Amino acid sequence: MQSIAIIGFGFMGTMHAQIYAQLRDARLVAVVDYKKAKAKRDLAKLKLDVPVFGTLEEMLAATDVDVVDICLPTDLHAPFAFKAIAAGKHVFCEKPLALKAADGRRIAFAAKKAGVFLQVGQCIRFWPEYQAFEVFVKSGKAGKLLSLSLQRRVGRTTYSVDDWLNDGDRSGGGALDLHIHDTDFVHHLLGKPDAVTSVGTRDKTGWSHIFTTYHFKSVAVTAEGGWNYPVNWGFQMAFQAVFERGTVEFDSGASPTLCMSLGKGKKQPLPYRTPGAGESKTGGGNLSSLGGYYNELAAFISCLENKRAPKIATGDQAADSLATALAEIQSAATGRTIKL
User: Fold this and answer.
1) Which parts of the chain fold into alpha helices (H)?
2) DSSP-based three-state secondary structure for 271
3) CA distances from 294 to 16, 126, 180, 272 (A)
């Protein structure tokens, strides 16, 4: 059984708390948030009786935990990750791992040197439809992958504590905080691109929308991510893949969400596995809405229980994706193609 402390109890912190409550081998034992009263109210809404501390240092002095789960604004990831690692705790850190590529590398190195496990919240690697697509690509059923286009779009964010997401100095803007999911999936599926060419839209929140071409020798890949839509526009993640003998399409707002067409056949659903069955304390349930959020934490806890270092969404992998996303921003800012 892994004991966990969540650091930062905003939108993602409460999401993680709900997931840990479902996992058989996880127990949430502490929350750290400087807004203690609000955190206590949010815990009560979730029917969780967990002590709340104002600082990480107070929590570490009072509570013996195995895992520190960092759900803070991105500009705080590095300092808190280093503190948790120095205390000998395993770390789950939300994405992006840091604001600077060098800091991402240093966090990954520090975890390995300390002998603790580190996993980063690049949840698309664990999202059921993206996992099914990865399996389909590797199966070769439709031949070679010729092109892949990915999209991630959302209305202007309003839910972050102190509106930190709309402060580009803290979040890196939509090009980093939002779009990095697709950048990371490109890395996961195809490896590091040779170069990136990007254009985008910049406003008071930083690079709020970005369009990128990833340079590979054998496949055409583009991705678009933006959060400069009207507040109530909604959310969409999607991709379209073209193969020699077919297509696969995903749209989070469609039903079914994931479809394929092979040869002259009609479009049909591509099956995928929803999370939760046989893994949760309840033995299943409707956890499909938690998608990759559930799968990534279940995978991390499983690694800890089996004393096995994570192999997906590792610190090094997250640092690589961070470096590429920052190169995309550099390309958009300078109008140049950036070699990686």
Assistant:
1) 11-20, 36-45, 56-62, 77-86, 101-114, 128-139, 168-171, 174-177, 180-190, 291-305, 315-334
2) coil
3) 8, 9, 19, 15
- First-to-last alpha carbon distance for the chain, in angstroms, is 41
Residue 96: CB atoms within 10 Å:
28
In angstroms, how far is CA 20 from the centroid of its own chain?
Answer: 17
Mean model confidence pLDDT for the chain: 94
Residue 161: how many CB atoms within 10 A of its CB? Answer: 17
- Taking a C-beta distance cutoff of 8 angstroms, is the pair 237, 130 a contact? no
pLDDT in tens, 180-221: 999 999 999 999 999 999 999 999 999 999 999 999 999 999
Q: Do 325 and 197 form a contact (C-beta atoms < 8 A)?
A: no
Q: What is the pLDDT of residues 114-168, one digit of tens each?
A: 999 999 999 999 999 999 999 999 999 999 999 999 999 999 988 888 899 999 9
Domain ranges of the chain: 2-122+291-314, 124-267+321-339
| pLDDT recorded at residue 286 | 43
Homologous superfamily (CATH) for 124-267+321-339: Dihydrodipicolinate Reductase; domain 2 (3.30.360.10)
**Alpha-carbon gap, residue 173 to 63, rounded angstroms:** 35
Fold of 2-122+291-314: Rossmann fold (3.40.50)
Contact criterion met (CB below 8 Å) for 193 and 309: no
The first and second tokens of residue 45, run together, are 């809404």
* Rounded CA separation 31/21 (Å): 14
Amino acid at 119: Q
This prediction has a pTM of 0.94
Of the candidates 277, 318, 321, the one whose C-alpha atom is nearest the C-alpha of residue 70 is 318
Query: Which 3 state secondary structure label does DSSP give 323?
Result: helix
Q: Are 117 and 314 in contact (CB under 8 A)?
A: no
Nearest Cα to 304, choosing from 21, 69, 77?
69
For residues 101 and 324, the answer to whether their CB atoms sit within 8 Å is: no
